[in-house]
Design a protein that fits this description.
- It is a single chain.
- The chain is 9% helix and 37% strand.
- It is mostly beta strands and 148 residues long.
- A hairpin with an 8-residue loop joins strand 8 and strand 9.
- The longest helix has 13 residues.
- The protein is elongated.
- The termini are far apart.
Amino acid sequence: MLMRTDPFRELDRFAQQFFGSQTPGTWSRPTPMPMDAYRVGDQYVVSFDLPGITPDAIELDIERNVLTVKAERRPLELGDGVEMQVAERPLGVFSRQLFLGDTLDADRIEAGYEAGVLTLKIPIAEKAKPRKIAISAADGGDRKQIDA
C-alpha cells in the first residue's frame, strides 16, 4: 500500500483523539460543522455537511431564538480480527448554533437529511413581510394604500 505521510496530520489526529475523545467522564470540545446559508423568496435555507452521520445521531433544539444543531459521528463497528490501517475521519460531537432574528418564524422550521447534508428551511415571519397600509383622508374620501 502506498501512503503519503504528513507528520502534522498525525499530530492533529493524535490531538483530536486525546482531547476530543467521547469517553464518559472526559472533557470534549464540540467541533464546528461546515455550513451554507442563503435566502430563497420568503425563507432562509441552511445546509450543514454531516457525512457519515446517521439521522438518529442528529439533534435539533431551539430555545429563545437560538437554534442548536448537534451531531455525533460514532466509531465504526469493526469485527474481531480487523486492524485499522488509517483513521483520519474525525469522531465525536459536532455542534453549531444559529441566532435567529425576530423576523424569522422559528415555529415553522422544516428539516431534511439526504446524502450527508442536513437542510433547514426557516420561513420569514408574516409580521416581517412587506404589506400595504390603507390611509384614509380626513374628509372621508377615497382610501389610498402605500407600501409599508
